[in-house]
Amino acid sequence: MAGEQHFEGIISKRADRPYRDGRSDDWRKTKQLASQEYAVVGYTAPKGSRSSFGALLLAAPDPVHGWLYVGRVGSSFSDALMREITQQLEGGGGRTPTAHVATADTDLRGATWFGPRFVVEVFYRGIGGQQL
Q1: Is the Cβ–Cβ distance between 130 and 58 less than 8 Å?
Q2: For the chain, which residues make up each domain, given as ranges?
Q3: Which intervals of the chain are annotated as region Disordered (predicted)?
């Protein structure tokens, strides 16, 4: 309902608590998350403490280009999920994008690209200037 009216989310209060002035833990803001499935077509180099990959490169089917780069996702991975994804990324790749890139994303210069290998469901609050 909140999303249909283009609201960010809803505010709710515990039913067993009275109304009081000021902030309290009795109130919660619940933000709406959207989700979409995308094909993984590459990854960026790891940074910081990561040793396997930095972010996954995502693409959606496109009637003109075959695959269209829609952005990258690199957060909220558990250690177990990082290991599972790393195994699926093995098998080589190249420096030439396998999806049409319509953005000037400088972080893609050293990326490893390959044909779609698996699909992920991405949860997000919004799409930024450089897509996901």
Answers
A1: no
A2: 1-32, 34-124
A3: 1-25
Q: Tell me: the pLDDT tens digits for 63-91?
A: 999 999 999 998 888 889 989 999 999 88
For 34-124, CATH gives 2.40.50
- Which amino acid is present at 6? H
23-37, 75-89, 108-122, range with greatest mean pLDDT = 108-122
Note whether 39 and 119 are within 8 A (CB).
yes
SS3 label, residue 14: coil
The count of other CB atoms within 10 Å of the CB of residue 2 is 13
112: left (phi over 0), alpha (psi -120 to 50) or beta: beta
What backbone phi and psi angles, to 5 degrees, belong to 120? Answer: -125, 150
Residues with Cβ within 8 Å of 99's Cβ and at least 6 positions away in sequence, in order, are 41, 42, 57, 59, 65, 66, 67, 68, 69, 113
Residue-level pLDDT at 107: 78
**Residues 18, 5: Cα–Cα separation, whole Å:** 28
